[in-house]
Structures
1.
Amino acid sequence: MSKLPNTITSIFTVMSKMAAEYNAINLSQGFPNFPIDEKLTAIVAQLANEDIHQYTPMAGYPPLLSKIASLVAYSYQRTVQAETEILVTTGATQGIFTSIQALVESEDEVIILDPSYDSYEAPILLCNAKPVRVALNDDYTPNWENIEAACSAKTKMIIINNPHNPTGKILNEADFEALETLFEKFPKIILLSDEVYEYITFEEKHISIHTRELLRNRAVVASSFGKTFHITGWKIGYLVAPEHLMKEIKKVHQFLVFSVNSLSQAAISDYLDIVSVDEIGSFYQQKRDYFRQLLSKSRFKLMPCEGTYFQVVSYEAISNENDVDFCKHLIIEHGVAAIPISNFYEKGKDLHLIRFCFAKDNATLEEAARRLYKI
Ligand code: PMP
Ligand code: GLN
């Protein structure tokens, strides 16, 4: 007996493991390989000698909660109540899981867009609820007509991911207006907005649910310090939600984790006094542009990338293999690991597309490009 009979080991685990086995350059799983900010390591070193090693309050270390409120106010001009509307989580993964467990009931339907990041489906199934996939358009914009057609009295939640992993697409003003119209028609539906790449956007700025008055009082927003501050291994993020939703989320959180690692909460709290989020987009834009330039004369075709630290490429000119086999051969024969995009689709749709993570130092990107250029 399995509660998740069709759930397989995450593709990120599979590809990172294989990259390690074959000593390949790992551009698969999304994590940076450059050193973290020295100011942050200095804070950790100092805090390690202080009295910060016991449980924090359940919802989070109070100074961190108030600094998250300030960050949301600074970034999105939204006032949130630190005590009632914010929850520090063990990464966005736990925030997403906990929100779904707390808010989705048995027999409910939850709309997920296709392709999607892999963290949404299993928590829905564990609620004995039904994930309903709605395909994005070919250019990865949401198809609001089809989303509306999928909504019914059974629909409890819609999950969006903006900026979008893996396609790098960001939602625009017209998308939010369509979403607002939809939410007016279906007053019971709540939104889970996965915004872990909120600060990693390029030409266009990301529009957050935090700025949408008509949506934010019915929405849970998931953020990740792992992505924002290049510390994915710390596993720390936060949720923002109106009190009536947060109350339910905290009921689950207290039995899933109770409280998040105290040292990392205190370190990020101090770090937020001295760090700016304003440069993150341009920092990664340089990496994106450099990686795209390095690949421009290869046989891989570069797809657009508006946000996230992922570059999707087509290998249509190189091979007819399915994308999973292509990625395996890429590791074994060429020493570079990527993620096959078919894994993000409910039915494994294979468009001969793969995803590279460009959150790497320049030497790594150059060596990867040198290998990819030869193919
Ligand atoms: N959502 C998306 C879209 C992601 O790409 C990731 C991976 N970082 C997560 C959620 C999980 O974030 P975290 O590492 O903070 O758990
Ligand atoms: N979010 C990361 C990615 O998309 C993976 C995180 C994980 O392995 N769970 O690559």
2.
Amino acid sequence: MLFPLIKDLIQFPPESQDLTIRGWVRTKRELKNLIFVEVNDGSSPGGIQCIFDRGSSGHTQLAPSAETILEALPTGSSVAIRGRLVPSPGSGQVVEVAAYAIELIGDAPTDTYPLQKKRHSLEFLREIAHLRARTTIFGAVARVRSRLAFGVHQFFQEQGFHYIHTPIITGNDAEGAGALFQVTTLDLKALAQSGKAPDYREDFFGKPSYLTVSGQLEAETYATALSRVYTFGPTFRAENSNTTRHLAEFWMIEPEIAFADLTDNMQLAEAFLKFLFTLVVRDCAEDLAFIEKVNAPIETGITATLQNILDSRFVHISYTDAVAALEKQASSFAFKPFWGCDLQSEHEKFITEQVVGGPVIVTDYPKEIKAFYMKLNDDEKTVRAMDVLVPRLGEIIGGSQREENYGLLENRMRALGMQLEDYAWYLDLRRYGTVPHAGFGMGFERLIQYITGMVNIRDVIPYPRAVGQAEF
Ligand code: 4AD
Ligand code: MG
């Protein structure tokens, strides 16, 4: 049997009120005969307050060793505390521990332990990412992340989707953006010394291979067999974008649905986001309340913002209409908007924050700025693409209806100079039993960023990988 967590002890107090608390010391303070020790085990943001009373007698009389340990008990040390759970007279907690014994499990010398009582900046904490989960804010974000990950599976599994593990090492560039990390076992140093060009036939896979940028193409092969599938795994992009919303390694959720068009796709995306918002508001209320206090700049508050979205419908707007709205405000942008331009982050934010004032789905983008697999519209200029934009962040989801017509897909791939042989398997899906199908990708970190209001995406993943950053 595992030891009980503080959260459970508070929620379901044991019958015998005697118990042991295990965790890490957050703070210690003294008031006359009383010593207050705040212990946190990561099961909830609050932890529990343990009170040692030097003047106590009877059942809660202090063990002789306790006095010595308490004397020098540092923040960050790990302890086991014995005591009785009692109703708390103080504000801020319902119960507390009338403690009588303490065991110091692991010391944390005050002169070197980096996490002292005071609040540290998120930038500083990023440098000690191996310890930052011990702060309340990173603990809260980690719990929210975990709950959402499970929620993703709940949402899809309840609707007949099957979870597909698409490969992490691949030979294709699904998005055609060329932002690939190459995987090789060739001895690059020896090659450089010999002055010879690499011969990939001698490489591990016998050809160039990469870390995947998206599991979509492989997911399509299963959607056109199992009807509804999704992937949820790590994806990698060697984009040189040093921004607060880009990572080189991020987790992506990609559903793919057969016999579906863009309207179905938009409905699924909205239902998916709303499901996750509902779940997090219900199950992570305490964590959200804490995060909300820290991320004060969000005027309306996190939970209220999510609730507003739950009560409204996502607005749909075409790219063409969106650009027209942007052009009216052209002077407010660093990058001047025009029909055909890729929407910049400033444009996306303007559309969702100013034009719409909430989540919005922009559809039917020019084919030139979107990936090869998207379905061509009758105008032959735009494709059945959709991006879901949310305030503060911009793009949270990108997706499309796929081109299911063999001839049109082949034309598009040729026009882009793609090697058809490399994608023969993908074209086969259109050659044999083709069906209209659609899907989207949601960056898991973008979702957490949006929900928590954390400003930098590097603070919602345990060990962020970005340009020049791969520590731990
Ligand atoms: O818009 P993207 O590039 O679309 C795809 O990869 C498609 N294959 C998805 C599909 O249709 N199955 O990426 C999808 C989402 C974006 O909307 C964004 O949320 C996230 O992935 N994303 C990133 N998140 C963090 N860091 C990055 N560098 C990201 N690039 C994309
Ligand atoms: Mg996109």
3.
Amino acid sequence: MEQQPKKRIYSAIQPSGMLTLGNYLGALRNWVAMQDEYECIYTVADLHAITVRQEPAKLRKQILETYALLMAVGIDPEKSLLFIQSHVAAHSQLAWILSCYTQFGELSRMTQFKDKSAKHADNINAGLFSYPALMAADILLYQADMVPVGADQKQHLEITRDVANRMNNIYPNVFTVPEPYIPKIGARVMSLQEPTQKMSKSDPNVNAWVAILDKPDDIMRKFKRAVTDSEACVRYAEGKDGINNLMDIFSAVTGKTYAEIEKEFDGKGYGDFKMAVGEAVVDTLKPVQDRFNELMSNRDVLETTWRNSAQQAEAIARRTLGKVMKKIGFIY
Ligand code: ATP
Ligand code: LTN
């Protein structure tokens, strides 16, 4: 049988804080799983991170840690490209071009922009507003077929598709129009304190999120304090947001179905259930934490890895950028 070329995947994560269990279950675990079937390109989106003010030393540390953590969860640079966004200049270059093909009205409708401008009312900068143009540049530079993201990024992907289609109408076949890939299971991990909100690494309430690198005691404490309800019955039902979230997490880390979980905890209180969820999460994260510590003690290896990946990415990115510039009418 003739072999089909592998489809190309692109995704990125911001180094805007400690990566959470939400990032892991909602995004990173899928990134790892996709590496054999697809040609994967993953980046640490440091350019996106400065849409919110960052302290230089802290940002540098977070970029390094995010990179190491991606390797620790199982992104294998032998199989996939794994680099730092700002190391490939074409991302910024194409972002400018795409921002000239993205409308004010479309950007104004982005919920992330509205949320973040409410949160950072003193710094509603142009980058925060044109964020989706940079994200579109990331994806379109590599002519990606699919983009695995959590449900919260769907709107940004739609804008990317609209911009790609718009450019293709003017300059035929310039871009591959990417499809979103939003996994159903574990797609949305909610805050442990406000289970109607997504778990977010930038939430100032540390009890609301579990970091992948949290110590076992902290993880257990956070689960013990998780907000539930007064019914005292472990079952998945509308209105039981806290318990539903814990069941989703437990299911994602153990592979058990809701029915199996309900049976296992039949007649038991929330205390027992929360302990079980906490322990299962600790067991899942332990090997990732061990590998992270190992990688962080070997900075040379990390540097060589990101440099090699960026070089390979650059070759692909420059090809697309050149094509776009020529089609637009620049002297390239
Ligand atoms: P921030 O709080 O800074 O907005 P974040 O925690 O939402 O950050 P991002 O860097 O925006 O994380 O997201 C990285 C990836 O993780 C995205 O694909 C996003 O959809 C996914 N993700 C983030 N939070 C969750 C969550 N709670 N549940 C599932 N997936 C998530
Ligand atoms: N905006 C995304 C991170 C991101 C991204 C991308 C995701 C930047 N560029 C390209 C997918 C494809 C976020 O905040 N999760």
